[in-house]
Amino acid sequence: MPVVTPWWFSAIVEPILRRLVTVADVHVLAPMPWRNTGLGHNELVSCSDLPNVQWHIIDSNDHPSLRMAPIERDDLLAYIHALSPDIVLCRSADFATARAFPGTVRYLMEVAATPFWVVPTVMITDRPFANGVMPDLDAAGRARLDALIAPLWADMHAHQDQVTPDRHAVFDQLGISPDRPAFLLPLEYEHEENFFRQHRPDGVGSEQMLATIAADITPHGTLVVTDHPLNVLHVDRTALADLVSGLGDRVILAPAGVLGVSSTTALARYAAGMLVGDSKSFALAAAFGVPTMRRSSFASADWLNTYSDIPAFVDDVCRGDPRTPSAASTRTWFAYHFANEAFNPGSPALSGEEIIDRCCRTVNPARWDAGMARVLAAKPEQVH
Asked: 343 phi and psi, to 5 degrees?
């Protein structure tokens, strides 16, 4: 658990631990706190009542390296092999080292929910950041998932039609020219606690990436940038704002909201194309059928029809015939993601047996009805 933040521990990890100890002997391995990650006194005290837990807190001088690539990797692997775990459940940004662990290795990752709403959820997966990827499903399974999502799909689009101002109003409010294609770039979390940033293919920050993308986009259209909500709260974005102001009127940094709705959600409905990395915003683009260009080291499902080359992406968008996500597969994937993958670690109904089942069995149709029951077409306070 090297990149667990205090919030992640209290909201996700501790509830999972409390269920696992009822059915398994549990070992928790993590470094001591650094950059708001790791485990310390508060986390240990909060779990002091738990039986069947052994804590392995790494406090050596090189403990920060566990967030990226352990300096003493061989020693770490030998230590874990000596524990001989059956299942390893990771919250780690160092996927390469974790894959060398013994037993069944899985990762705790966030769920891509927008534009739907679910209670706080996570997923257990063996392929982090594999956008839209799902196993082969038989015809009966796909049909059942499609039936489960159908009423929610209709309600979601009806809600978005009701609450989202029209394209002219959104563009006018944000100063976007209606006469050029508008490309949306939702930025990712830039705080130092986000060690997943190390997997960006070019290893650069959002400012350098933005400058590079702008050079490809602005001769042909407008680049509209929206910031991650946690950046707005926790990260100094002065450099980003200065950069955007110097890139000319074809690059716009949108505020968090526009005319009472999320700027990212509103713009996803009207953008000619979206550029993503490992952001969960890919699901928003798929929901609205927006062509997408992805800069990432990880896989994207074929049905997303994702571009990996900006010039080809821009050319197709400007010509009016870009590849777009498969509408049918988009619905099926959302249903699979919610029904089969997502779960609420704080649910009283969650058991230790279910967590183990999620680690060991990729697809379990017995989860599907309860999984879909947690999903709403919109956040409750947004429903009028």
From this structure: -150, 160
pLDDT at 97: 94
DSSP character at residue 24: S
Q: What is the pLDDT of residue 383?
A: 45
Name the helix (H) or strand (E) containing 232: helix 229-234
Q: What CA–CA distance (Å, rounded) separates 226 from 221?
A: 16
**CA 108 to chain centroid:** 11
Q: Which residues pair with 31 in a beta bridge?
A: 58
Side-chain-facing half-sphere of 326: CA atoms under 13 Å? 12
Q: Are 313 and 304 in contact (CB under 8 A)?
A: no
DSSP secondary structure string for all residues of 85-154: -SEEEE--S-HHHHHTSSSEEEEEEE---TTSEESS-EEEESSTT-BT------HHHHHHHHHHHHHHHH
Q: Across-strand partners of 110? A: 122
Q: How crowded is the C-beta side of 102, counted as CA atoms within 13 Å? A: 11
Token couple for 32? 């001591």
Strands of 237-384, DSSP E: 251-253, 257-258, 261-262, 273-276, 292-294, 375-376
Q: Would you state the structure tokens that stand for residue 238, as one six-digit string?
A: 């002065």
For the chain, residues with pLDDT lower than 70 are 203-204, 381-384
Tokens of residue 126, six digits: 């063996």
Tens digits of residue pLDDT in 122-137: 999 999 999 999 999 9
